[in-house]
User: What shape does this take?
Amino acid sequence: MVRYLSSRLAGMLVVLAIVAVLVFILTRAASGDPVSVLLGDQATAADIARVQKEYGLDKPLPVQFGYWLREVLQGNLGQSIFLQRPVTQALMERAEPTALLALMAVGIAALIGLPCGIVSAVFRGRVVDQVFTGIAMLGASIPSFWLGIVLIQLFAVSLGWFPVSGYGAPGAPLAERLHALILPATVLGLLNSALIIRFTRASMLDVLGEDYVRTARSKGLAESTVVLKHALRNALVPIVTVLGLTIALMIGGAVVTETVFGLPGVGNLVVNAVLRRDYPVIQGALLVIAAIYVLINFSIDLLYAVVDPRVKI
Assistant: This one.
């Protein structure tokens, strides 16, 4: 176990190091300059040079990367050029909407995807299977921004059940904030349930053809017991994998969804940082998101041994 954890942690550090290098290079390779955006078109060359020196942007790129990496290793993601506060603080201020949105969306996706995938596998080739398979294909092909606009028009504008955008007034109670997240969470949940349906169906089909399932049926066990107790338990490893990937996909999908619904989350913060060329925010946010991806994958590997005792780590 210790050897496994050590190797996994080492692998995580290598991945994060590669991500840090790529994020820094791609950020600097993008056209535009944060100082020019900050000072505007009327800025003189002397003003630009002064601000570049203030933020260390006048130094060679390897030196800039070394300074940034040193700060990251000390737990400091840098200072936002436009927000004028630490990147860590800016991310913490925006973390709550994104975290609640992701959790609600995963719950919706699981509540839709798991039952539909199980039923589709049990009734393979029948009408219900074709319907759920079609729903999965449709969900995988619909753009999130289009579905978000449709739901806003129907449930927010026409029916008035939900706010068109926003996250509630400052200091609003949790119930009001969760109410504002129902539509965006539904968008992410519906679209990502398609992946869960397909994986659950495929995994259940593999297990339902095993000998021990036929033996359980021959003993006269109820079909629900055979499916839920014997088949589903042994099909959980790939299902757990896709659930973990779904959580990771929620973070990426939140960028578009938060923009459509005007949510003050991490995705919206990243979009604004890209438009402003706010290098520290872009680098810090992407590095944190990559770390979350890596931790999710690590947690999935540990869950394998819990879900299936046959898996050794």
